[in-house]
Design brief:
- With 231 residues, the chain is of the alpha/beta class.
- The chain has two domains: 94 residues, no CATH class; 111 residues, no CATH class.
- The protein is built from six helices and ten strands, in the order E-H-E-H-H-E-E-E-H-H-E-E-E-H-E-E.
- The strands form three sheets. A five-stranded mixed β-sheet has the order 4-5-6-8-7, covered by helices on one side.
- Helix 1 packs parallel to helix 3.
- The chain is globular and about 65 Å long.
- It starts with 8 loop residues before the first strand and ends in a 12-residue tail after the last strand.
- The structure holds fe (ii) ion.
- Fe (ii) ion binds next to loops.
């Protein structure tokens, strides 16, 4: 993946759930190592080469299921990777608006509820962006969420929202999930965003005019099929 990225770029967002956790609902099956500290060290080692290319790294808090109570694994990881703390002093934030030369990116791991259609929570988050504009110091140009753990890229009426895909392979718990339906993803990976602040005109405008969203995605291993009689 590093080959597809510039040697230096402006910022890296690790949007939560950086570790697997203990896979409680799978009784710890199928994970290589349940030790949280070990998982954090592994995550730092894996992501450090990428973080070194970024001028600034920002980290979000994921869920207790993956990141432990209070999302402590994300917080410890964030401090070790040298992430920028938020205004409350947390290295991993629950919700943050990053203003980049006049382009505002609103990112958090958590998102609105989804039953099946992954574009619905993104649309709700875009509507929430309008409701929360006064709190946030204005509307954001890009909404980034991740708890769907599936790649989605929505442009609705010129407003942009993305769900980042997961780097994790599908677990047996995910295969049995009912909401959304069995969490079957075709892709794993991340998302690259190119910003063009000079193309933003400050009026009502299609945000795609000044924000490029590119998936850095790879196929999830296929489920395949069992051949009757073996072979
Ligand atoms: Fe999550």
């Amino acid at each position: 993946m590093l080959d597809n990225l510039p040697r230096k770029f402006g910022f890296l967002i690790i949007n939560g759930d950086v570790t697997d956790g203990v896979a409680r609902k799978d009784l710890g099956r199928y994970i290589v190592e349940p030790d949280q500290d070990f998982q954090i060290r592994a995550a730092v080692k894996l992501i450090e080469p990428l973080a070194k290319r970024a001028r600034f790294t920002y980290v979000s808090k994921g869920t207790p299921y993956h990141a432990g109570l209070g999302s402590s694994a994300d917080e410890v990881f964030a401090e070790r990777i040298g992430a920028v703390p938020d205004e409350w002093g947390h290295f991993a934030s629950t919700w943050r608006v990053l203003s980049v030369e006049g382009i505002d990116i609103d990112f958090s791991h958590h998102r609105s509820i989804s039953i099946r259609n992954d574009s619905a929570p993104l649309e709700r988050e875009i509507q929430f962006d309008a409701m929360a504009a006064e709190l946030k110091g204005g509307r954001s140009d890009l909404i980034v969420r991740s708890h769907g753990h599936r790649y989605a890229h929505l442009n609705i009426d010129g407003e942009l929202g993305i769900h980042t895909p997961s780097w994790s392979l599908q677990t047996s718990f995910a295969q049995m999930s009912k909401s959304p339906n069995r969490l079957i993803s075709r892709l794993v990976g991340g998302v690259r965003v190119n910003l063009f602040p000079s193309k933003k005109n400050g009026d009502i405008q299609d945000a795609a005019d000044y924000i490029d969203v590119l998936g850095l995605v790879y196929p999830h291993p296929r489920v395949g099929k069992s051949i009757h009689g073996g072979g």
